[in-house]
Amino acid sequence: MLNNAPLYNFEDHGNYAWLDEHSLNNDGQLNLKGWHATNDALNKKYHYSIILDGKTHREIARQNITNSSIERKDVKAVYDIYNAEKSGFDVTFNIANSLANATSIQLVDRYTDDPAGNGDATDYWFAPFTIEHGNYGSLDNVSIEKNQLHLAGWHASNSTANKKYHYIIIVDNTNNNRELIRIRLSNNVSRPDVAKVLPSVYHADQSGFDTYVKLTNFNFNHQLQVIDRYTDDPSGNGNAADYWYSSFGGQTTNQGWLDNINFSDGQHLTVSGWHANDVTNYEQEHFVILFDSTSNQQVAVVQAKAVRRPDVAKVYPRVKTAINSGFQATFDLTKSKLIAGHSYAIVSRYSTATDGNGDQGAYTDYWFRPNLLTTKAHYFDKVQMTKDGLQVVGWAVDDSSINRANAYLIILNNGKEITRQRLLLTSRPDVARVYPSAYNSLNSGFDTLVKFDPQLVTGQLQVLVRFTNDPAGNGNYSDQISTSYNSNVGNFDQIDITNTTLTVSGWHATDQSNKQPYQYLIALGENGQELYRWQIKDRNLKRLDVLNAVPYILNSSNSGYQLSVSIPNEIQHHTVRFIHRYTDDPNGNGNYSDIYSNSVMVNNLMRTPIDFRQSSEYAPYPNINQLKNFWINVKIGQNRVYMMDGNNVAYTMYCTAGRYVNGVSLTPTGTYYVQPERGNIFEWANHWTSWKDHGVYLFHSVVFDQPWHDHQYDLNQAKLLGVSTGSHGCIRLSVPDAYWIQHNVPAGTKVVIEN
Length: 755
Prior knowledge:
Blueprint: E1 15-24, E2 29-38, E3 46-53, E4 59-64, H1 73-78, E5 88-94, H2 96-99, E6 104-112, E7 121-125, E8 129-130, E9 136-145, E10 148-156, E11 165-172, E12 178-185, H3 192-197, E13 208-214, E14 223-231, E15 240-244, E16 248-249, E17 255-262, E18 268-276, E19 285-292, E20 297-303, E21 305-307, H4 310-315, E22 326-332, E23 344-351, E24 363-368, E25 376-386, E26 389-398, E27 406-413, E28 416-422, H5 429-434, E29 445-451, E30 460-468, E31 477-481, E32 485-486, E33 488-497, E34 501-510, E35 518-524, E36 530-535, H6 544-549, E37 560-566, E38 575-583, E39 592-596, E40 600-601, E41 630-635, E42 640-645, E43 648-654, E44 660-661, E45 664-665, E46 670-673, E47 678-681, E48 686-692, E49 697-701, H7 715-718, E50 731-733, H8 735-744, E51 750-754
Parallel strand pairs: 41-51, 49-50
Antiparallel strand pairs: 1-2, 2-5, 3-4, 3-6, 6-7, 6-8, 9-10, 10-13, 11-12, 11-14, 14-15, 14-16, 17-18, 18-22, 19-20, 19-23, 21-22, 23-24, 25-26, 26-29, 27-28, 27-30, 30-31, 30-32, 33-34, 34-37, 35-36, 35-38, 38-39, 38-40, 41-42, 42-43, 44-45, 46-51, 47-48, 48-49
Pathway: Cell wall biogenesis; peptidoglycan biosynthesis
Keywords: Cell shape, Cell wall biogenesis/degradation, Peptidoglycan synthesis, Transferase
GO molecular function, one term: peptidoglycan L,D-transpeptidase activity
């Protein structure tokens, strides 16, 4: 090469450059690599890199890179121009303070004769490149630990670069986004995982947070939302960059049921049931509270024992935690006394707190209002009179006994006290199974002999169970009383009368029997006058059936008697009532205890007085299958219906036939036949059977007092039975007689009606 040969092509006046690479790291360091070559750089010995806001063209920073040129033989090989082999650059700017606002950066590469980078310059303006301005975040953990809300996650954005204050804010979406709390974070958590994904986002490597929040005023049944905020304001307001994470919590179903209450031992109250609510994702401590609603105060609180409830999960499939909604809890009430008459509630509480009753954290309640302390029940398994007094076996529960510890049995005669006895209650697990929620039902039994003279019972015996606060059995008490037990009862099981013989048997029990050893049968006439009396020798017969029926009467097991005598003329053909009498007089007078029979017609089978509710005869109805020639004969004028067997009367019924109009009865006379139509009721009577015109003319009961008033009869019309005519054509009978015809007389039976 000649010494005067040119070193490069002076004729090329192009301005050439290329930005090979730009990168931004997590600390806001912008690295730029490239080259810039031009013949116009001759005599411009200063080399600058200048970065501008790509949108506003406002200068952000400049660097003198004159002494930091990078050798670029590749450029020289392409461009034979001044200093091409030294045209490269590799420069780094700290743009942290500009990241928040700059959406793009533009590089200007400058050759100038000015040491300050101005003056006569040759520039190359590279195309602007975009700065990452996405807003990224994730809430990795929302949980409850030690009655605090544990939040962990990250938030990264270049918009945070000029905002040195970091806050976590929680708002209640359900309550109009009301702010619940804000916490200033002093230390961020290293998140290299985030930096790996977001390498060009400012401080992505330190974008994490892990903090605990006090749960003041939190309601996890509301939708809550966490906001991560970077701001230039120490108070957490000002110019802020926020990230709103997805809401958590929210409106939940709050359902519950109390399955069982057991207070049977009187010292421990055990409850079980279920309370389903997905709030348990956050409120994971379960308390059960016994609350006195009357005095508005807590009585006791226990931690619940969890029970799996697949049945609840089946009914409430949308409640994800329903499978674990069951609970059981036992309150020790040996020190916490309940008060009779107060109203109580059982409260199931889910809480974030672990201590006390859970009210120092966020909590959700379900109130159960059982009928606690309202039970009052008793039963006497055995009430049996002995010569020494009354044997009483049974049980009694009374929730008011929680404040009335003294139990008594009090014996009454006609409402007045005979005696009392204090009870020592015994175990009754059978009662506890039926009344588990009743106070002390496990210890509700008694078996005692209350001593007194049975002769003191002269009327209605009653047994009273009392719980009282008074050791003597008075004071403030709560009573339960038995039904009335009649002390003098009996029954005439048999009164058989033939033409010549009277046979009577039955039983009679009275508490006076020990001191009234004589027994008599006395016959009274129609006007109540005595007609005859017999001393009963065959007495004190074994009657275990009577003992089972009336054990509360002395000697009821030996209360039977029987008597068979010739009928004296004094009672023959009379309607009589019999008296069975216990007496202390050998002649049947003195002090006595009587029972009376119904009226009986001696040797007259027709019932007197006439009673439309009973059969017409004392004798049983005939068995039609045993009669050879059965037919029915109606005598209108006699007010009688005869069940005939050929020419013999098998049974006689009182009747009321059609009234007479102009001397003719409204009941048609002649021969008819019973028809198939029959039934239990029609508009005006019961038990009808048709004998003419298929439902027009009937045998039926006495008539109702108003249409369709089943078994409610017109008493004035009933008085006509067996006495007078009065129907519109049908034949009225007593209720049992009409029933018997309906169910026993077949269709086709001949009916002869005579005037």
